[in-house]
Specification:
It is built from 11 helices and 15 strands. With about 325 residues, the protein is α/β, with parallel strands linked by helices. Helix 3 runs parallel beside helix 4 and helix 4 crosses helix 11. The N and C termini lie far apart (about 50 Å).
Length: about 325
C-alpha cells in the first residue's frame, strides 16, 4: 500500500487498465492528516479476458470504453459479445483500455473493428475520423442520459458552489459526465478547474468515482447517471450515503461505432444484429442487464450538444 500526500493525490494503476489500489491523505480543519485507504484490486486484467494475436485477423475485435471498472465492464458485456459471436458465426475478441483516447486510437489505427464508446470520446473520435456511428442505445424510451454531480450526505456539500477548494473526482479527460460537463459548470461560475478545486483526480471509471465519494476520499464527483442508477438498483449499499447535488441537461447515449475501414457487408450485418437484438428473449435479457431496451438508428446530430461541451464544431 502506498501513502501519498493529499497535495499530490495520485492513483496507482496496473498494466493496461484499471487500478489496483489507492491511498491518499486528506487534510482536516485541524490540519491533522487523515489517512484513508481504498483497494481497487478487484479487477480483471485484459490479458486474462482475451489475448488477441496478430494471426487473429478473422476475429471481430470489439473495444469497450471503461465507463465502469474493468471487472464490471467485462461482466456487463460478456454475454452480449457471446451473442454477437453466435449470430456472426465468427470469433469475437473483447479489448479494454484504461482511457477513452486509447480506444479512439485503436479504432483509428485499425486495431479494433467495432467499439462501444461514451458520448464524449465519440465526438472527439468522429472529429478525428477514427470511426463512424453504427447504432445508439435506447433506455426507457430515451436516447439520452444525464450527468450527476454527487457528494457524501455528511459532507455539507449541497451545491457545486460548495465544492470550491475541495477535492473532486473526474472520470476521464474525454468523458462527457466525468469531465466536460463539470468543467463547463465551473466556467459558468467564472473560474477554471485548476483554480476552483483544491485538487482533482481521474478515476477512469464512474463506479470508482462513486466509491471515492462514498468513502469520503473526495468531496465530490461527476458521474454518468446510467452507472449511478444501475448501482442504486443493483447495489444500493454502495450509494446509500451519496446525494445528487446537480443533474445536467440530457446527453446523447453512448453509441456503438465501427471502423471507417470496415466492409459495407460486415457493417450491415452488425447493424442488423444490434437493431434486432431486443426481439430475441435471451438477448433481450442481456440488453436489460446493460440498461438498454433496444438499439436504434439515429442521426449523428444528436451529439451536437456534446460537441458544444467539447468545443467541437459539427462537420
Amino acid at each position: 500500500m502506498i501513502k501519498l500526500n493529499w497535495q499530490k493525490l495520485l492513483f496507482a494503476t496496473i498494466v493496461t487498465l484499471g487500478f489496483s489500489l489507492l491511498s491518499c491523505t486528506k487534510s482536516s480543519n485541524s490540519h491533522k492528516h487523515k489517512v484513508v485507504s481504498l483497494n481497487f484490486s478487484d479487477t480483471i486484467r485484459v490479458d486474462q479476458i482475451v489475448v488477441p494475436t496478430e494471426n487473429q485477423k478473422e476475429a471481430l475485435r470489439i473495444a469497450i470504453s471503461a465507463i465502469s471498472s474493468p471487472r464490471e465492464t467485462f461482466n456487463y458485456y460478456k454475454d452480449m459479445l457471446m451473442y454477437i459471436e453466435e449470430q456472426l458465426g465468427q470469433k469475437v475478441i473483447m479489448i479494454q483500455r484504461k482511457t477513452y483516447s486509447e480506444i479512439n486510437d485503436l479504432m483509428k489505427e485499425n486495431k479494433a473493428d467495432i467499439a462501444i464508446v461514451c458520448s464524449g470520446n465519440y465526438v472527439y473520435g468522429k472529429a478525428d475520423s477514427a470511426f463512424k456511428l453504427l447504432v445508439v442505445p435506447e433506455w426507457k424510451g430515451k436516447n439520452y442520459y444525464n450527468t450527476y454531480i454527487i457528494a457524501h450526505k455528511n459532507s455539507g456539500v449541497k451545491s457545486i458552489n460548495d465544492l470550491k477548494n475541495k477535492l473532486f473526482a473526474y472520470t476521464d479527460p474525454l468523458s462527457t459526465s466525468g469531465k466536460l460537463y463539470p468543467t463547463k459548470r465551473v466556467k459558468e461560475l467564472g473560474s477554471t478547474p485548476n483554480d476552483f478545486f483544491q485538487s482533482v483526480v481521474y478515476t477512469h471509471a464512474h463506479d470508482n468515482s462513486v466509491q471515492l465519494v462514498a468513502k469520503q476520499m473526495v468531496d465530490g464527483a461527476s458521474v454518468n447517471s446510467l452507472v449511478f442508477d444501475y448501482l442504486t438498483s443493483s447495489s444500493p449499499n454502495r450509494v446509500k450515503d451519496i446525494i445528487i447535488i446537480e443533474k445536467s441537461a440530457p446527453h446523447a447515449m453512448p453509441p456503438v461505432v465501427v471502423s471507417n475501414k470496415m466492409s459495407k457487408e460486415m457493417e450491415a450485418k452488425l447493424k442488423d444484429i444490434f437493431l434486432n437484438m431486443h426481439k430475441n428473449q435471451g438477448s433481450k435479457k442481456v440488453l436489460q442487464n446493460l440498461m438498454v431496451d433496444r438499439y436504434t438508428h439515429k442521426s449523428d446530430t444528436i451529439y451536437n450538444s456534446v460537441r458544444e461541451l467539447a468545443g467541437i464544431t459539427p462537420k
